[in-house]
Amino acid sequence: MRTSLLHLPPPAIRLFKLFAVVVGMALAGPAAGEPPGLPTRPGNLIIVGGGDTPASVQQRFVALAGGPGKARIAVFPMASTQFDEEAQEVMAELRKLQADPQLINLERHDAQTEATAQLLEAFSGYWFLGGDQNRLAATLLGTRALDVIERRYQEGAVVGGTSAGAAVMTSEMLTGRQNGERGDAPPIARGAIDLGKGFGFLPDAIVDQHFLKRARYNRLLSAVLDRPQLIGVGIDEETALQVRSDGRWEVLGKSYVKVIDARGARMTHDRRHLTGASNIRLHLLPRGAVFDPKRGRITLPEGG
User: Fold this and answer.
1) Of 40, 46, 65, 57, residue with least CA distance to 243
2) 38-299: CATH, from 3.10.450.50, 1.10.10.10, 3.40.50.880, 3.40.50.1470
């Protein structure tokens, strides 16, 4: 026999209503561990390997930042002490695409202020110029300015950079310094490459830029074999990697992105710390290729 709510005692009715409210909140609310009020997917990263940034990459960045007439882009030059020419060129190129760029040159004390935090709230895109990634890290890590950029990224803003502005995107970044023996190419050995703390927008990777131009295979291999849980990403000049909001990586521009995946590798080290390794996966990704880092799957563009 079915019992209606009308025939239940008042305490039981109150308990039933409370149960319904809790279940409804669980079904409609954010997933466990997800910050309230934020989307389940962040924005996009556009990471350029240096050299001239292709117009198609700039157009993609502006489109992701809201499109012509709407994109407001903060341009950060702090990686370099001589940034005037490059910064002005980038600003002019963005204006041609009908974006609204603003040069934001910060010292560390500026990056800690409420005025800077409020200023950075208004942008839909954040672009970091080249130079020395250590300067960027020293200026922004642990500051209110970077907190705002990280939150805006989680809210859907696009973040990008070239050269040093690419290297700093990961949690552990290449500092450009080499430990031990000096030479044209570092040995593939434990501890040969110095790593520092980066911004952490791409936490599961290590990015190296100017990859083909400066023959940086040994450098990236050493770094990856020291941190095999991180995927090595070598980006050629005039080439970019878009880290999309769905988690997949798409290659843009004119050349290749090389992916070194040692997550399943077996390694040994001799007494000089030289590394031996097997089962390292190398992917050569041309323009238009898409890589799923979680599943290790690649979609290559169809040949013409």
Assistant:
1) 46
2) 3.40.50.880
